[in-house]
Design goal:
Length: 82
C-alpha cells in the first residue's frame, strides 16, 4: 500500500477518539470536513485516501485527542491532552 492510502490512525483509534469525545459520525465528519459516509467506509475496513482522513485527525487533535503509536507490548491507542 502506498503512503497516500496509509491512514493517519487506525479504525480502533478513530472509534476510541469519537467515543472519548462523545462524537458521532456526523459530528466527526463535519469537524474534519468530510462526509459521514467516508468515515463509515473507513470504519468498515474500506480504503479511504489519506487526504480525506488528515483533516479528521487534525480536528480530533484540536479537540484534545493524542494519537499514540503502538509498541511491542501494546497496540496503537489514544490519550487526552493535559
Amino acid at each position: 500500500m502506498t503512503w497516500w492510502y496509509t491512514p493517519p490512525f487506525t479504525v480502533k483509534q478513530l472509534k476510541a477518539a469519537r467515543g472519548a469525545l462523545g462524537w458521532g459520525l456526523r459530528q466527526t465528519a463535519k469537524a474534519g470536513y468530510t462526509t459521514p459516509g467516508s468515515l463509515c467506509k473507513f470504519e468498515n475496513g474500506k480504503t479511504v485516501h489519506r487526504a480525506v482522513l488528515e483533516p479528521v485527525r487534525d480536528a480530533l487533535e484540536k479537540a484534545g485527542i493524542i494519537f499514540v503509536d503502538g509498541t511491542d507490548e501494546h497496540g496503537p491507542g489514544i490519550a487526552f491532552k493535559h
